[in-house]
């Protein structure tokens, strides 16, 4: 059968996504011709900002190169703008005279940037920010000029400002409203964003209206003048004040246009042979500018072009999940609230986390998240479904898994991914749910982020769901993902893996985060929330007493030296060595509970007493009144050493497990590690202390002690592996200490001991710790050197660099 002729005008993300879907449904139905006005194949427009900032290249953001079109037999005309549609002859004509006949025509002409109608807009150096050409223009200007002004404090404007700042320019952002991103953020979140960006060197001119642009004698812009008479120098002016559907071609062809090319639910225009998708479209009175609804249009359009005749596009409930220069943002629905609504708010300015949930008639109607957006997709699902939240209201603020760890994005993140239902949406841009990702991983044997992107499209567009996709891979692929991580970059800031960074820090004797970033050519000048905690740990573990510890590069729990809970209060767990306490300590704890009206006192699974519900402003006073050492229950480090009563009391006990546990805990009490570490000592093989599922487990037998390593009692229980049998307390301490130091020196940040040993192999660990006595002793000595003189954050807050300002309540 003779193929039908399909012509597509426009070569952007929505149009090409339609062709991808069409190829899967009906690969032999059409002879396809594509016209693109730009000289580039299909690229990810969302990622132009990283190109501007120097973090990526044009090649990095290409979605479909020219070879892709050729492989599908698509005729591609690049750099050819279509100027005429002859509907009678079913013919399109390009500016250079190239023509193409069609049986079906797909318009994907996108949008055009809006330029403020002010005097001086025609000056050299005044541009919009829309495509690769604009990006290259800004890069060239940054190499020659100093002062840049970006008009528009929305997402695109802030990304442009950040990129120009990273290129070395002095950048000011002009914005007419009172706060940034007023369409996506409420005033509190907008101000937090402003403060964060100001700390990175950007300047903001809010509530300023542009009157005109001033030029020099060569016709280039030199300054911007505002309606109040003030001026700001400007060698480059970038207008990022909005977009308009590009309807010029459609209007010239007589198609019905009204703030966009008007289409029906099958994406057909007034002429049923002509379809339209993307930012150029007006569907039911709405023009969309976010990629998720554009891809929904593409799916529907592909089914109808393929003659399946199914699917209707009925509009989109949109959310915004964005990353503005390293800050996570999410908003959806009526996040500003209004009459008849109520707000639930969590605000932690020091930790950089703000959440506002808006409720009406027991339903979530809006959400605004700043700094921690991991539960954005879940909130969006609640909002779309309109379900009652009365049964989960108490825990609504703290997410689907109710972890109670706002701000601690990287901590145990895979457990949240494991708890998500299969129908939960992960990638809003491409409409990919968790079940589709898990199925692809299992059926196709995927274990890298790149493979998952290729097969599912998850995280392939704006990239804001990348962390969650990685967590799903970890939860599904398990050890295979650890193997893949050997060559996986630490984060988007660098191409270097964890192993390469660790080796560079040691080989080049780097002792501070800025040194690492400079020496290894980080893409971003300050790193991000993923790599900075890792870099900080690698430095202090490699060069103890010499490297500069940066408290602000730790997670919120380690900065506050207490565990944040679901209601925003904290829990305090004083250290009780080996689980043993005294009447005096118990009285002190009871007095503190009464004095500060602490609502809950609970014995933990690690045999310690947990004081739950401590207000942040009371933490310092609670520490002082307790006068007890920190249990570091919040830290990536030693938590507890659990013990049974052992031979001192138990008639079955063969060894003094309590004293052995206390010796280990005293020695290791202030030890930081790649992840949390738990120990246990049992006095006999009955193993009442559950030593067989700990990072280090010690079990007393008649002739001494058996040592086990790399156990895990979490969601996926892992039984510890036998390491060695020894006779004395001193040998236990040396063997356990040497193993933990090996893990401290070689483990990757947020890698538990079970995954570290799984990666390097137990034989390797035995060779380093058991068989090589000199190496074991050296490891143990390095551990003791690192721990000697470590300050206790509760008892020596100044020496421990505790920022006491965080405990001062904010004035209203």
Provide structural commentary:
The protein is built from 25 helices and 38 strands. It is α/β, with parallel strands linked by helices. The protein has five domains: 4-111 and 245-305, FAD/NAD(P)-binding domain (3-Layer(bba) Sandwich), CATH 3.50.50.60; 126-241, FAD/NAD(P)-binding domain, CATH 3.50.50.60; 412-488, BFD-like [2Fe-2S]-binding domain (Arc Repressor Mutant, subunit A, Orthogonal Bundle); 489-554, no CATH class; 636-791, Sulfite Reductase Hemoprotein, domain 1 (2-Layer Sandwich). A hairpin with a 4-residue loop joins strand 7 (91-94) and strand 8 (99-101). The longest helix is centred in the last third of the chain and has 18 residues, at 729-746.
SS-based structural class? Answer: alpha/beta
Largest sheet: 5 strands, parallel
Major beta sheet, strand line-up? 5-2-1-9-21
Instruction: Give the C-alpha Rg.
Output: 30 Å
Number of helices: 25
Kindly state the mean pLDDT as a whole number? 88
**Number of DSSP E strands:** 38
Per-chain topology:
Layout (H helix, E strand, L loop, with lengths): L3 E6 L3 H13 L4 E7 L5 E2 L4 H5 L9 E3 L1 H6 L3 E4 L3 E5 L4 E4 L4 E3 L2 E4 L3 E3 L12 E3 L3 H13 L2 E5 L3 H12 L3 E6 L11 H12 L4 E4 L3 E6 L5 E6 L4 E3 L2 E4 L3 E3 L2 H5 L8 E3 L10 E3 L4 E3 L7 H15 L13 E6 L2 E7 L8 E7 L4 E8 L2 E8 L5 H10 L27 H7 L5 E3 L4 E2 H11 L4 H8 L9 H12 L1 H6 L13 H10 L5 H7 L11 H12 L13 H5 L2 E2 L5 E3 L10 H13 L4 E4 L5 E6 L4 H8 L11 E6 L13 H12 L8 E6 L13 E6 L2 E6 L11 E6 L2 H18 L6 H8 L1 H10 L1 H15 L25
Parallel strand pairs: 1-2, 1-9, 2-5, 9-21, 11-18, 12-13, 12-18, 13-14, 20-22, 34-35, 35-36
Antiparallel strand pairs: 3-4, 6-7, 7-8, 10-19, 15-16, 16-17, 23-24, 24-27, 25-26, 26-27, 28-29, 30-31, 31-33, 32-33, 36-37, 37-38
Helix pairs in contact: 1-8, 10-13, 11-13, 15-17, 21-22, 22-24, 22-25, 24-25
